[in-house]
Amino acid sequence: MSNNIPHAQTHLAWTWHNSAEPHDLQLERIAIPQPAAGDVLVRNQVIGLNPVDWKVLTPGLVDWQTGHVPGVDGAGTVVALGEGVDKRWLGKRVAYHQSLARPGSYAEHTPVAERALIAIPDALSFDVAASIPCPALTAWLAIEKLPAIQNAPLLISGAGGAVGHYLVQFAAARGFVITAMCNPRHWPRLQAMGAAHCIAGPLAPEQVWPEDKNGTFFAVIDSVNEDHAARLTPALKANGHIICIQGRLTQWPCAPFGRTLSMHEVALGALHWYGDDEAWNDLTTAGVQIFDDLVNNRLVAEETVAVDFDELPQLLDKLRHRQFSGKPLVRINP
């Protein structure tokens, strides 16, 4: 194993103890994990928090043991290499999206599969890099489901969130005419990034899509939930596409030989179990392109809210209760 690891054998990490409450995470000193074959060890600089982080704290949702380190997004420097890893990674600045089954980013160090690494250009900060993987790569997976048709009308539901922030920009770059569905406070930002129209949303419980707007869109991308996505399907034209980011439709949204709609689901985390090396190469190549677009002002990153490592549970709880706007970050190893 090649490494630049400090002589210390332990590090600080936030650990899970069978509670759904972020405040029940415990800051402990535990052994630094060693990179297995095909892995690197990243010394984290910034941790990106995401809604999935508080959702999976609920016992039973993921097969975690007491003391597991949560967290899926991080950015830092490669300080050790497992067997078989390209030696050029040592010392590189990287960002990553971690499997929920592995030790996560809520620690000073995280073991990460080589194939999941995204090199960070020198001109990009760790803050911006750590804010990218979960929301921007999810948005990229979603937009890649669609054939790029110039001026095709696209509805993005839940556009005010982190995934929507990047979806609007990716869709605009591909030539779609975008209608963003979200709280009106997000409209100026989304219009500045390429949304042609904005409508209030999401739909209220039991509210249906207005009948006079049926058959309006080539595609709908929904990041609210499966029920909300199902209620938006009347908005689709024949041969249209419905893409679900939160959950998926449980029933086909049209009768046989009807509008012949296509259904898609997006689950970034599933690639850790089912993605082959080609799929991961496609994903990390997209990540590198996203970083390049940010450096060259072709993409706009989210505004960020950053705290120190010892404040992580409090910020995660505020994220759960939507008590602020912006991308939550935790700085570590300054």
TrEMBL record:
Coiled coil: none annotated. Residues 20-330 form the Enoyl reductase (ER) domain. GO terms for molecular function: oxidoreductase activity. CDD domains: MDR5. SUPFAM superfamilies: GroES-like, NAD(P)-binding Rossmann-fold domains. InterPro entries: ADH-like_N, ER, GroES-like_sf, Lipid_raft_assoc_Zn_ADH, NAD(P)-bd_dom_sf. This is Alcohol dehydrogenase. It comes from Kluyvera genomosp. 2. The lineage of its organism: Bacteria, Pseudomonadati, Pseudomonadota, Gammaproteobacteria, Enterobacterales.
